[in-house]
Structure to design on (248 residues):
């Protein structure tokens, strides 16, 4: 209905300022990372900057939350072709522009220590991998436009959402809370168990290890919708506050 649509839009618009500050934190983290490392242990500013990666986790939760609110709240089937076309149009053109813009810099850095031929071959290999949005899967593909590794993770989220999202949206009551607890504790236990056996890169960037965070965002949206329905169309608990609590 129109009322549900306006409520959904209001909730998403209410997250805009929070998303801006989270994105700005990421920008500062990447642009001032060397300074943050140098003053991390003695200056509060350095400590804050060095935690900029936390914003990425926050965005993964919001990704699940917003997709669920937009595509699942109505109860209608997801039209996969339209969904994937919309996701592609939203992220890929800008991603491609930044990838192309950063490629000459990557080639130049390689050329400083390798022959032109080897530098060109390695640049082509890394560029091809990034073009296919698989840069988060391998440390060998991370060097061009590296901050956009999160889009490689988001691609996995988009691929599983039409199936997993619908399954999660059917949950209610105790099953919803059980799923949330299992996801949260299970993901933390999995990372704790895997960390000694995998590289730091895999532990930090592998898309599979970020899927539980995305699913928690969908669960958060489902819980809030159920809360709204039980309270006659309003919810007293802001989603942003819960998402922040999950991150920290």
């Amino acid at each position: 209905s129109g009322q549900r649509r306006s409520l959904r839009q209001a909730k998403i618009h209410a997250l805009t300022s929070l998303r801006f500050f989270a994105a700005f934190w990421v920008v500062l983290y990447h642009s001032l990372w060397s300074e943050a490392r140098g003053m991390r242990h003695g200056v509060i500013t350095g400590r804050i900057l060095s935690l900029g990666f936390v914003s990425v986790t926050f965005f993964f939760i919001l990704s699940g939350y917003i997709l669920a609110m937009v595509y699942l709240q109505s109860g209608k089937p997801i039209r996969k072709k339209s969904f994937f076309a919309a996701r592609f149009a939203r992220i890929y053109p800008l991603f491609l522009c930044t990838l192309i813009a950063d490629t000459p810099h990557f080639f130049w850095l390689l050329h400083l220590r390798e022959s032109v031929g080897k530098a060109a071959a390695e640049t082509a290999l890394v560029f091809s991998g990034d073009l296919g949005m698989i840069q988060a899967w391998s440390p060998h593909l991370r060097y061009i436009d590296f901050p956009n590794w999160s889009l490689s993770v988001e691609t996995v989220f988009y691929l599983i959402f039409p199936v997993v999202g619908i399954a999660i949206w059917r949950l209610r009551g105790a099953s919803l809370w059980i799923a949330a607890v299992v996801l949260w504790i299970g993901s933390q236990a999995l990372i704790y168990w895997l960390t000694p056996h995998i590289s730091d890169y895999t532990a930090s960037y592998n898309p599979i290890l970020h899927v539980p965070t995305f699913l928690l965002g969908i669960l958060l949206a489902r819980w809030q919708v159920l809360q709204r329905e039980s309270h006659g169309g309003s919810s007293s608990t802001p989603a942003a506050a819960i998402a922040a609590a999950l991150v920290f």
The chain has a mean pLDDT of 80.
